[in-house]
Amino acid sequence: MATADFLPPLMFFLLFSIFRTTLSTNSLDITTDQSALLALKSHITHDPHHLLATNWSTSTSVCNWIGVTCGFRHHRVIALDLSSMDLTGTIPSQLGNLSFLHSFSICHNSFHGSLPTELTNLHRLKHLDFGNNSFGGEIPTWFGYFAKLESLYLYMNNFTGVIPSTFGNLSKLETLSLFNNNLKGQIHIRIDYCSNLIRLYLENN
């Protein structure tokens, strides 16, 4: 009888410990995502419509911020869409901590500067749209290591040099848009490796 009476409190303690650990982990994850997005906010130098200035506040849940979508399962940020907000700024390295991100769009803004290598941590990315901004320099070769990437939009920027041969690693890629840049040279991509490629836009280079 003593053993039977002892089991319910023990089971309750174990379940409570598991729940507390899970809750603590989820809270830490949300805090990580929040910190990454606040870093981006601090790198915005022009927000004429005050969209981030008034909406991205620690007094509300990250998942309720404009342009942010969270997943139901892990309660992490899975999509970030800041397209056509007339924003000016740079991309901070902390965005590489959004490890559950599937879709990332900042098209039709005025982002500039270099792209941090920490973005390579976004290994779940399927959609990436940096089109119509002011990014320059050579296209980073590490774009070719997003194994799940299905669409990549880098059109209407100031990218120079050649198209990285690493793009040939993107076996799931369906759309590649690089038009209106300053690219040149030969295309050293094994197109047969990109067996799912349907749309390729290279004009005005």
TrEMBL record:
Keyword set, alphabetical order: Leucine-rich repeat, Repeat, Signal
Naturally occurring in which organism (per UniProt): Hibiscus sabdariffa
Signal sequence segment: 1-24
Any Pfam family hit: LRR_1
PANTHER family in the record: DNA DAMAGE-REPAIR/TOLERATION PROTEIN DRT100 (PTHR48060), L DOMAIN-LIKE PROTEIN (PTHR48060:SF21)
Leucine-rich repeat-containing N-terminal plant-type domain location: 32-70
Protein name, as recorded: Leucine-rich repeat-containing N-terminal plant-type domain-containing protein
Top-level taxon of the source organism: Eukaryota
Record-linked InterPro entries: DNA_repair-toleration, Leu-rich_rpt, LRR_dom_sf, LRR_N_plant-typ
